[in-house]
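Morning. Coffee machine broken again, so started the prediction first thing and wrote up yesterday's gels while waiting. Chain of 514 residues, entered below exactly as on the submission form.
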Amino acid sequence: MDKIGFGFANGVVLILYLLAMTAIGALFAKKAGKNTDAFFKASGSVPSWAVGFSIYATTLSAITFMATPEKAFNGDWAYAAGNLSIIVIIPILIYFYVPFFRKLNVTTAYEYLEARFNPIMRVFGSVLFSLFHIGRIAIVIYLPTVAITSVSTINPYLVCAAIGVLCVIYSFLGGMEGVIWTDFIQGVILIGGALLVIAVGVFNVGGFGQVAADAVSNKKIISSETMKWSFTAATVPIIFIGSIFNSLQQYTSSQDVVQRYNTTKNQKETNKSLWTNGFLAFITIPIFYGMGTVLYSFYKGTNAAGVLPNFMNADVVGAAANTTALVPYFILTALPAGVAGIVIAAILAAAQSTISSSLNSISACVVVDIKQRFFGKSLKEEDDVKLARLIIIISGILGTIAALFFIKTNQKETWDLFLTFIGLFGVPIAGIFGLGIFTKRANGTGALIGLFASAFSCYWIQGHTAWAANPFVFSTFSFISAVVFGYIFSLIFNKDKKNITGLTIYTKDDEYVQ
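Came back before lunch.
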């Protein structure tokens, strides 16, 4: 297949978008540079609706922007059960988790782990998050770059460098407030871009009626097969249950989300931000899964208006079909010049919102959990902000260089293995947060041993059980095993005692005394 020219108009639109994001970061540069409270928590001054949009944009990466429609195109809407899990956990977050983060006025999620357990748990959680997200930055830059440039003539090294470098610049300048406001704009752009794709697709196939007819006749919304219980297949019940634990990991133990809980002025505003995010997660279902269904009708339906290239067409190449670049291909072939640039900007917006959040959160972990915790705050708070900005530069450069290396060598297997290994601790750490909040007998020694026991168990079952291949069953096991192991080992090593008043649900309303 000949690649599609990106075009002058699309290039201009894309450059204007990237410059605008950088300008927003510059707008908040002076305010963010005052102290670490301003740089990491925006001094608690951001409105709830903006924070909600920011959480949404952070959790929806460019990979999701392209992969979600692809799933609906190739299958049905079964994975939408994962979006519903976010709405289900919001009351749990509001009632059981957020009060502790607000009470302790944490900058990082892992400050709770020290308060409840010990400094080792805090540092371990913080370092793991930082390492994982440096790796994730590389993947979040690399995958959309490859997808876009696989169907266009745009230079992949240019796209990769632009995403990484500009993210570093506006995260460096604007701190968390700059990140949140760019996230808000990026969230609007990515939703608008998706709606634009749907509108053009629907128009070209003859209306929503035709899309609905194609979806019903080809079981593109839901099928009886995906409603069954299965420990080896990704069906609706297990997707929903597993996604609850995945969501708990992201919303209770992942710094890039938890950091936003103290960017509003009070708990009530934080609650509103979570419900805003929940609403956006809900409308994502008809928008992004609907996009995939519309594209199916456009390329495969009764009155198909477009033709897929051979490498994407299963009717031509069978099992070798590759629809990863489905969304960028439609954008560049079906949308007018200039308009296509806006929607490509939406894909990059999804990538940048994820990356900028990771950069600011990594710097928060290093500065607050390592530097300030063990070496104290600098006499001039601006010096800690300078360190935070230096960490952003280093993390961004490392992630971008890794992404450029993947493009050059077309190899990322070792990096995937690295992320998988560190990822073994991701959901179990969320289990440790749950262990601390919901039990009184858990202690630091038991929690740490339980965390490693859970991670080791997860590693072992990956190679010895059939259901380990199902990520949703795996997530459920990861979370529950961390809680169970942590509790059991806490009973065994029960001499590790400390005052936990105000740190569990049983004393939630009591004052925490350090």
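The chain has 21 helices and no strands. Going to sketch it on the whiteboard this afternoon.
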